[in-house]
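Weekly structure sync - notes
Attendees: PM, LS, DV (DV joined late)
Agenda: review two folding runs queued last week.

Item 1: First target. Sequence and structure tokens pasted below for the record.
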Amino acid sequence: METKEIQKLIDFIAQSGLDEVNIETTDLKIKVKRYGSAPTASLSSSPAAPAPSYAPATPTTAVTHSAPTEPTVSSPTSPSNLITIKSPMIGTFYRASSPETPAFANIGDEINPGKVVCVIEAMKLFNEIESEISGKIVKVLVENATPVEFDQPLFLVEPV
């Protein structure tokens, strides 16, 4: 594992809010713990190789900028009958497969079971998240390219 890959992993963990992560293979063992607000990392190789130690750079504080929000669809529905699509994993939320392509699901779009509504990237793997319900997207709860937690609400859907 390259130093850059380790640093990316540490940055990802810092953004995710996890306090401790252990990754162990036959050749490599990585343990990342967060004490207070700054994470520390230790790296050790198999006994045949020397055990290098890498200290991460101080994590940067994420600054959120207010971006123009999409207009909400005015409907007489009450929040109690809306269904929430939640994240099935920890990762980075993307509304489209690439910056040049349109979003999978926008406010007002009709969705059916099996329709891809977003992509969550975790450990360089892009996982398509499919809807399990039919309905109309009422609200997108997460900004594009931001970290999400397991079971975090992503979309509000009005069932059809």
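Item 2: Second target, run right after the first with the same settings.
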Amino acid sequence: MSHAPPPSEGPLGPSSVGLLGGGVIGGGWAARFLLNGVDVKLYDPDPEASRHVGRLLDNARRAYAKLTALPLPREGSLTIVDSPEEAAVGVQLVQESAPERLELKQRLLAAASAAAGPEVLFSSSTSGLRPSLLQTEMEHPERFTVGHPFNPVYLLPLVELCAGERTAAETVGRAAALYRAVGMHPLALRHEIDGFIADRLLEALWREALWLVHDDVATVAEVDDVVRYGAGLRWAIMGTFLTYRLAGGEAGMRAFMEHFGPALALPWTKLVDVPELTLDFLDKVAHQSDAQAAGRSVAELERERDDALVAILQALRARGTGAGLTVAAWERGLLDVVPAPPAASLDGDGPLALYSREIPPDWIDYNGHVTESRYLDLLGEATDALLRYIGVDSSYVGAGRSYYTVETHISHLGQLYAGDRVHAATQVLGSDDKRLHLFHVITRLGEEAPVATGEHMLVHVDATAGRAAPVREEVRRRVEALAAAHAALPRPGRAGRRITL
């Protein structure tokens, strides 16, 4: 049976979703959707659900401010509803994230699907229950798939998609497109299987970790250190099979398998055996875990985790590999999701006011104020805002054309501190077919004295050819109009300045 997608579903993703469950996973979904401009209707009978979601949303706002310099869409609205039926009306996707109890999930999906139109997609965050079991009581079960995410959902991009026996062929594709639009990496399973791919791998590791602690071979902290300082760093880049391929040297995977394969027959691991979860063993694990946390609260640990994940994701993005590719694709999409800044000027006829931001705490150096390299970040982000304004969007960049900065002169005129709100006044000093001359003045909100200025020369390039190239017609017209308007403005006093004694 075929279903046409609802009108508001498209390349920019859903406009609204319904969430069944607002715990760690459901709240993480809420944060990801809301910060990507999607309205959320949330059903959760827990009276604390709104508070839990609010905490995760605060975490996500903080993380996204570090993850990308691009402006996010206008944040979606969060509405708490009283029933699963209400959550399923007027949305494009219903994401179920209830506790891992089959009967509970079946009941929620049945109630919500009876109220939703036949075109509404349904997905479950289940960690391992087969979709064929989950969809048995649903209306229109052909529009259901598993969409299994990972904590924290707002940062980790992987979502495993698994179809059930009654799932229509196009359902997984539609779900993948919606998830991809909010910055995720959908991976569709070839076959329905308990535990899917990730949890089958993770559970094997978890069983062995429990045995190591149970048998006093290692503490919980030592097991975690083995992953944090060793394999986990490689996994973030290469995964499992590429890691072992490199272990085979120039001869590759076959050499590795021939050399190390026989060790698989040795009784090194417990395989699927699980230690008995006695009270003494549970106390042992809990005590060691408390010691490992060293008094840090859940909120503190979440922020430490998020900060480290942001740094890893940015490093992977810079290298063009792994989950960094997903972050880069999401950012390119933001160029289209977020409209170009309005053509506002500071005084009606003056420089453009296109960019502002709040200074984050991690920009502060040992002197207690913003480190000098971050002034370049501010000016670079102001330049990006100007480029979006003149039409250098994702399609333009995707075609291999953009402006690259070739020369910069920064004047540091004042100190900035965490929490300061700054904005940039941007003036075009000149342009031709290949060059763009800009001047930014950075000012603390509510003050007139600048804290920094930046003068920049940009060259338009053909990235495919690797050389300077004339700007394309539609962007050229906007640049020329802006340069003509700014030609009548007074030239900034610091423009053209050089360093002298």
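Discussion on item 2: The first strand starts at residue 16 and ends at 20.
Action: LS to circulate a short write-up before next sync.
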